[in-house]
Design goal:
Elements: H1 7-17, H2 20-24, E1 25-27, E2 51-54, E3 66-69, E4 80-86, E5 93-101, E6 113-118, E7 125-131, E8 138-141, E9 145-146, E10 152-158, E11 167-169, E12 172-178, E13 187-191, E14 224-229, E15 233-240, H3 243-246, E16 254-256, E17 259-260, E18 272-278, E19 287-292, E20 311-319, E21 324-327, E22 335-339, H4 341-344, H5 351-354, H6 356-362, E23 367-371, H7 378-381, H8 387-398, E24 404-407, H9 411-416, H10 422-439, E25 444-448, H11 464-472, E26 481-484, H12 495-498, H13 507-517, E27 532-537, E28 551-553, E29 560-564, E30 571-578, E31 586-590, E32 598-601, E33 608-610, E34 615-619, E35 630-634, E36 639-640, E37 650-651, E38 660-666, E39 669-673, E40 680-682, E41 691-697, E42 707-710, E43 719-724, E44 727-732, E45 735-740, E46 748-754, E47 759-763, E48 766-771, E49 781-783, E50 796-803, H14 809-823
Helix pairs in contact: 8-10, 10-11
Length: 825
Amino acid sequence: MQSLISEPPIQNALAQLGPDLPAYSDLNSLVSRRLHATAWKTSAWTRAPRVLQLHEPSGHSGLGRRFWVNYDGLAPDGGYLQRPWTCPPGVTSVALELDGVQLPGGAPSSPAFALQLLDSPRANILHTTSFTPGASSVNLATPAIAVTPGTQYWVRLAVCVAGQATFLCDGIRVRPVAATGIFGRPFVRIDAHPSLMHDSAEVRYEDPALWPNPRFAMHSSHSSLRLRTSASTLAVELYDTANRGLGDRGRPSVFVDGEPLDPPLPVTRDRVSYHELAIPRGRRADREVVAHSGPQLYTALPAPAREHRGTYLSALYLPADARIDIQRPPAPRPDIILGDSKGTGYYSSHVGSNSLHYQLEERGMRVITYAAGGWYLRSETGSALTVAACMPLARAIVRHSPARLWLQIGRNDLAGQYFTNIQNLATQLGNLCDACHQLLPDLQIIVPTITRETNEPDVTGGTWQDFRALQRALATGRDYVTIQDWATAWTKSEAPQFTSDGVHPNDRGYEHTVAMAIGEPHPYSPKRIASLRGWWEADTGLGGGAMSTVTASGNTPPTVNVTGTATRAFRLRVEVTTAGTPPSSRLRWTIDEGRYWEEIDVPLGASVPLGGTGLSLSMATGVGYANNVVYTWDVRPASWLDLSGNGNDLSVEHAGFAGQYNPTALNNQPGILWTPNQGMRLLGLNITAPYAVAVVATLGTMTPIRSLIGRQTAAEGVILYSSSATRMSVADGPSQINADGVVAKVPHVYVAIVDGANSRLYVDGAVAASGTLSNFPLTGLWFGLDRVAGWGSDGHHLAAALFAARPTDDEIACLTARWRQKYRF
């Protein structure tokens, strides 16, 4: 179906808006089209397919740059991109649109993908339309979908509805079809992107930490977006979580030519709200508009992990025929890339679009690339291994007063052995770090490890991997140095896929390094290991079940009851917002750690369904509730979705075996909390050695014996358990290997290899034990419990994987790096 928006008006609007529009502005859409941006992924990082931003091909008629969705064809099972949006006043129907859809070059075909509209709890798909990409570029649109003003929805691009869909497009629009006011004619949406926000204490680039809530980027109180425009009207989109506590005293303002428009905006508590405002006429044709965020709020109540209380600016909307000049804030201190040809972006398909420099700039960083092809460190410092020898280069760096230095140089010194051995090269890199720190003490230095290449011959002093270990050691004793382990973005055997010539990253390689540079989750996927048979992550795919007992806080909390079976794993949080006796009092509830709230009247003894959750709530009659009362329940998940696509979902033997969902198990990441008689299982396997089982887990105690991985029956399968207070052991039948000195009460990545005399236990990527196992076949597998001996866990499981062959050391290193970065240990 052709899009209802014709292309010439879009191009005219682009020409009027200038360079800001392709990155942070959109035409006739209620969401940003930038599919590679954080807001599309932050609500479900693990499910998100990889998106490659491409340079616009000559003659293409789309909106700026293109996107290759699921370019590696390895999206997790059920993979999607999604983000919430709230229907503005006057909008009664919308269309979901995707322009420029076609197969990528060289792809003969692709399964269908789907554009979907979901309700607020994401329990129901309200509309779905599937498309199959072809060789020709097509603008696609759903039929008009009826929507309700003031209601929140989710738009989802699902890529695994019929296999692994892979395609090119220009990004998504949610376009009003039937609308009045500013949304009833062509309009421009300007995203409150961190690089456009004035007077914000947060970083100015697209750091995923700024998007705990996908509706807005974090910014400090009274931050503002500023522009000059000929428009006579505009709309402001705000998200508020503060005025419930402030009593509507935290309303933000819009200023025109330095004067506030009165009254301040009446935000909707715990909701997205839109405010259409008239811009008064003045003596000048273009008026200066400053749209502020409101104040933020600290609360002593136990706070949800992902809620930040305040009134946040999300976007501005202006008529498309107006002149619009977005005013950027003063330039921040730059980031400097000190590097060689990899740092300059050689061999990317388009250096001015896909190189490290431009990809970081597109996300809001100010970047100076102090790099050149063939450059090497010794050419600047000489061979004297001293801080003084590094001072001239350090002075050239710090004269720009950078905030951060990316120390990417050194690869050519390694290959050419210009410092005689790898130890000397590492020493000189450390000297350069020290020299820069002496000259600019607040400079943060980032050392990316050298990306993997197809040919890495041994050099004097060791291997390339040995040198990468020395790079990682540069942070030891230097709190101003951070390591980014780009060497784990792909394995050595994968270098042909991620480099253009075996050395220099191609577009896929740069996409991976940029993801690591800005702090996105590690790009390595378990699906790249060919023998993967099962993959489970606690932040997605945990099925619903019964509820835990309630945890209550506040002034003598009265009894509250929850009944039903949850639709999926979550923490239900109920807060009394208006004190009193029902029905005069009010409450609100959330199931996503404060990302979205529902506010309702407290029922008077009746049972009230909590929409989309599978649960109902009832409260005592004739009892007063204080407004500091908080109740929480955690789901006891009964199943765990296999993300590998092999259908090996885990389940509980019966409800008594269900653990408890914990949304903040480790560094605000979810996990399953077990008691020693609980666990999940996978039966019906028939895997012979060699095979491997990996798990990310903690134990509460190591004595008595606790099991992380267990068996269904004796003489089959493998067990990973604590055989003493400081030992973890792997056993299958009479054979056992022991890893001494392992404290399982802190998190680790364990990879147990069952391979006869070559069996291993890896802990955090290093071999902790080796020896001989019996090679019993794997017919059943438990996590959290050994069903044979009855040994169980009293800690958390966060992730796990099963392999029907032995992963390589490289693959284990990359998998370990992924999980350690995700869980931050």
